[in-house]
Amino acid sequence: MMKLKVIGSGSKGNAYLLENEQEALLIECGVNIKEIKKAVDFNVSKISGCIVTHEHGDHAKSITEVLGSGINVYATKGTFENTKAGLTMKSSRQIVIPQKGEFQVGNFKVMSFPTIHDVAEPCGFLIYHKDCGVTLFLTDTVYSNFRFSGLNNIIIEANYDNEIINEKLGDKKFLRDRIYQSHMSLDTCLEFLNANDLSAVNNIVLIHLSDSNSHEINFAKKVSAITGKTVTTADGGMTINFNKTPF
Q1: Measured between alpha carbons, how far is residue 5 from residues 29, 34, 36, 94, 214 in Å?
Q2: pLDDT tens-digit map of 189-240
């Protein structure tokens, strides 16, 4: 049985575990390494690998410590080079992946694809495991150029609401425009979901909600109303059943 464990979500730090009894895949390492170890009850050897979408601290803060803990980290060349540690990282556990391509992490088959963010080589992930089926991980992107078929679970950014951000940041053009040009709005998230086949989707998990420019209850209600799916907004410490089928 696969579970999604949310270690952290949002600008303060992102890290997620896809975990069954035998193994775990760490997605992002933007929280303190102690939180990551605690999430696996300090059984670090259970983590087959860590995949990282891009170099910003809220996604890659602990990359050096993760490598130092004996965990392979999979990221693009641009991500490795532009993390805070940068080129000083020299570990055989650094696995450079293509921005668009396939690779294997334990029993997780992963496909990377380009996203649209203000960094070097950002990517999203399509993850396959026999327990959770096909899971999409999509965050920190203005929109997606891709459509996906056969999805069973979706983890997707819904960072801000246009109405809220215009009300709160209407006089702060630089900050507002930076968010517009690097993150996914709720409206864009809904458009993306509508454009994809959700017939086999069990869970939609909304991640990376802005602390000040979102409303998690309303976001979940809107996405659920339009998709008819079980929708959860991610909070640290949360665990969700994340199987291929709901039974």
Answers
A1: 13, 15, 10, 24, 22
A2: 999 999 999 999 999 999 999 888 889 899 999 999 999 999 999 999 999 9
